Amino acid sequence: MRRAPAPLVVLLVALFAAGCSATPPPGTDGDLTDDWAALATPAPFRPAAGQCHEALATTAPVDDYRPVDCAELHVSETFHVGTAADADVVPAPGSPGAKAAFRECSDVAADFLGGPWRSARVAVQVVWPTRSGWAGGARWFRCDVTTADLDGQSRTSREGSLAGELAGPSPLHLACFDPTVDGETVKTMLPVTCAEPHRAEFAGLWKAPDVAYAKLESDIDRSATGCRSVIARFAALPHNDDLQYRSGWISYNPTRTEWLSGERRVRCFIYFAERTFERSLKNAGPRVLPVR
């Protein structure tokens, strides 16, 4: 049998020994497993505050989340994102979880806007994850604000953020109005400056009791009593039986959705069927508003 030359055998042994050396190559530690970062646990989608949207919704599917710059035309603005208590399903309207979320949104809205939103032509709405998002671990709720009419129904587009809007003079503050009334139904409430002829003016808020919404809507006497007490304070009038002969009243209840969420503040307006004024009636007193 033919043998390999001795020098070749020595070379192969040297190469093998180098490959099995305990000393790793320069710049390495020889461990192939310790430098891999652990994969992050997937987190559910969570929206951001400070975003504006082209529509106002009650739920926010991830696939439809397309915020726009608040400088562009938009309908609603997210001013706060809260964390909901853990539950099996999205809180239903009227549930403790839904009321807690609305209360948080309402409180934060006053800070964000710079004043009480119920005293302005704005509305606050809670936006929830979808059922599938909730099932996937989402536990957030979005607080959105939008400009709205007195019924809280008609949403209007605007440009620019509402941050601090109510801290100073603003056309959104409830003030004087020129109403159109058919019988006992208010058809329209056109906002005007108090220096213009007008027949109605925002007097303040009355906190209604915790009753069924249908009862709130049907109990006119309760609303009259509540709003007359507000008007008496606003216009510096005696709060007695003669008040009904000094002025009328108009009230705007919270929407059904707001009522289910725990909103109890009713908007009250001093109103005159025939007389017009070109001034505010705040602290007007009996001389300006005598018994008639």
UniProtKB/TrEMBL annotation:
Keywords: Signal
A Pfam family recorded for this sequence: Septum_form
Entry-linked InterPro entries: Septum_form
Span of domain Septum formation-related: 49-268
Signal sequence range: 1-22
Cytoplasm is among the record's keywords: no
Protein name as annotated: Septum formation-related domain-containing protein
Organism field: Actinoplanes friuliensis DSM 7358
